[in-house]
Structure formats: C-alpha cells, structure tokens
Amino acid sequence: MRMLSRACSIVASSLPRCSSAAAPTMRGQPSLLPSVRKHWLGKPLLYGIGTLLVMPLRTLQGVGRVFGAGRFLCNMTGVSSSLQIELVPCLRDNYAYILHDVDTGTVGVVDPSEAMPIIDALEKRNQNLTYILNTHHHYDHTGGNLELKAKYGAKVIGAEKDKDRIPGIDIALKEGDTWMFAGHQVFVLETPGHTSGHVCYYFAGSGAIFTGDTLFSLSCGKLFEGTPQQMYTSLQKIVALPDETKVYCGHEYTLSNSKFALSVEPGNKELLEYAAHATDLRNKNIPTVPTTIGREKQCNPFLRTFNPEIKRTLSIPDHFGEDRVLEIIRQAKDNF
Ligand SMILES: [Zn+2]
Fold first, then answer.
1. For position 259, what pLDDT does the model report?
2. Is 198 designated active site?
3. Which residues form the Metallo-beta-lactamase domain (predicted)?
C-alpha cells in the first residue's frame, strides 16, 4: 500500500487462479461467458494531475472489509488475488490503463498511446512492465508499444486479425481465447466495427472490460472498417456481461457524447442525471471512466436501438431492425 493515494483492489475470488504469471495463450471455450457466446498529457491543464488511480471494481464474493484510511481504500477478502487499475491520460483525450497484480507484482498496460506517461507512472512506483495489451491497431492506442517494449522487454498482446498492424506484437489472440494475466483470466472478445480487428479484454474475475474504441460512455466508435451490423453485434456481446461490469474505454468523450444522446432521447431521466454528473466530474477534471454496463444500457443511445423515443426523434420506421437503427443513430451522430 506504499504509494497509493487512491487505490482499490479487486478480488477475483470466484475464479480459478493460474499459478503462472507468465502463462501464454490458452485456447478454449470461456465457460464464464455463455451469455456472450450466445448471446490526462499528460494534459496537465486538462486533468490537473498526470495520473489518477481509479477505484476499481468489486468484490465478487463475500463481504469486503473496507480499509479506508484515506491513503488506501481497498476491498479485501481472505483471497489473495487482486488487481489494481490505474488510469493514465495520454495525448489529448486518450486513456491508457496500467494493470497491477498486487500478489505477483506483474504489471501490464492497455493501449499505451505514447510511452512517456506510462514510463512516468511506472517509475513513480518503481515498477517494471511485463505486458502491453492493445485493443486495436490505431496509433493512439499503440503509439507507445515499441518504446515500452524496448525499455522493459514487455510482451505485446493483440488481435490475431491485426497481427500485421500492431507494432511489436508477440501474442496474437482471437475470439474465445483466454489469456492469463498473473492469474487473472482474460477473455478475448472480437468486436469489429470501429476496425476490423478490434478486440475487447474482459477480466471476468475483476468485473472489468477494456473496450478501446468499440464502446464509449454514451457512444460507440466510428465505423472506419466495419459495418453497422458488425458494430451492433459487437456491442450486444459486450452488454451481455453483468450490469455491474466496469467499462474502461479508450477516450474521455462522455461530455460531448451526452449532448448527442440527450438530443435523441431528451426524456431519459437516467441520461439527464448521468449527463449532469459527467458535467460535474469534468468541471473538476475528474475522469468519467469507468462507466458500467448497467449505466450504458440505461443511457447510451447505441445500446438503446429498441427505444421508441430515439426512433421517433430520428424518424426511424418501426419495422427497421435494430442494426439499421444503429446505422441511423451513427449517421446522425457523425453529422451532429
Ligand atoms: Zn481507434
């Protein structure tokens, strides 16, 4: 608990632990995902501080005892597994996430847009870097790969479909693969739409998903390489996860997204409340991330393609399928 001013552990007590911190790819059906199968620079001016320790996640089992002496907030059980997630603002509005398994000291980073903010965060805590996880090939998610890999010897993990586009990739994963991060089982969800090879990483035991540019708070990624149908299917996969799942997305776009969301569903009370909350957070330079699956289902128009008010606002015929509804919502947002 040395240097953490605001940190919280997640306790992955309901899942089997892997003994090897460095276990490579494991293939197989993720038994925990039946429903899914089926169905700041550092911008110091913007954010005030370079990094913020995010309070994750949840205790899956049992009652957590809260140690909250101000310096260290942590849910604890008798089980030893815990993962800390630190949000690191990069570039203009990207977020990278540093993952730290407290038990083994293993450290990873998700989507390092640039190396320096990550190196700064690691050096503050005298940590090494073992893994780099990329959700997709765009530069603002992989820009730090090679420098970090060269400095720390970290292994780069990414989508098999993007193995030719992800700098320095070592471990290529695909849908249905599970990969172990220091004993935390990570499920790979292929989520094409924004890019053809986009993947999300679901840390089931920690109740956390890293969604890159597929799912944002109150929006989804632009369709650069995929169809609305693909994006619809990808989003449905993600929202099949438990409502309390924390969503760590690639950008801080929530405030601007809320303006569009309110324009198409002005009568959504939860959305009105969340938009006000997000405004308040951003006014204090606090990230709106993570959000949760439950909140997004209530508020995100791209997950509400069934909603009569949205369809009415955008004059979408009743007989349109939800993927076509998503297409029209996406077009409307692109022109908003
Ligand atoms: Zn992108």
1. 98
2. no
3. 93-251
Give the pTM: 0.79
Say if CB 305 and CB 232 are below 8 A apart. Answer: yes
Q: Is-contact 56 84, C-beta < 8 A?
A: yes
Give dist(CA 10, CA 238) in Å, integer.
Answer: 20
Q: Is residue 318 among the annotated active site residues?
A: no
Q: Could you tell me which of 301, 307, 313, 250 has the C-alpha nearest to residue 275?
A: 301
Residue with the two structure tokens 């998610």 = 141
226 burial type by CB count under 10 A (0-12 exposed, 13-18 middle, 19+ buried): buried
- Among this protein's residues, is 194 annotated catalytic? yes
CA atoms of 215 and 100, how far apart (whole Å): 23
Backbone torsions φ then ψ of 202, nearest 5 degrees:
-105, 115
Residue listed under structure tokens 């990550």: 118
What value does the mean pLDDT take over residues 196-218? 97
Does the annotation mark 280 as catalytic? Answer: no
Longest CA span, the chain: 58
Q: What are phi and psi of 326, to 5 degrees?
A: -60, -40
Q: How far is the CA of 26 from the centre of ligand 1 (A)?
A: 27
Is pLDDT above 70 for 303? yes
Looking at residue 302, its pLDDT comes to: 98
How far, in whole angstroms, is CA 35 from its chain's centroid? 19
State CA 212 to chain mean position distance: 6
The pair of three-digit structure tokens given for residue 305, joined into one six-digit string: 């393609």
Cα separation, 9 vs 12, whole angstroms: 9
- The answer to whether 276 and 283 are in contact (CB under 8 A) is no
3-state SS, residue 169: strand
Q: Give the distance (Å) from ligand 1 centre to CA of residue 79.
A: 37
Q: Respond yes or no on whether the N-terminal peptide bond of residue 56 is cis (omega within 30° of 0).
A: no
Q: 10 Å Cβ neighbour count for 18? A: 17
Q: What single letter denotes the amino acid at residue 318?
A: D
The structure tokens 């109740």 sit at 207
Sequence-distant (6+) residues with CB within 8 A of 279 are: 255, 258
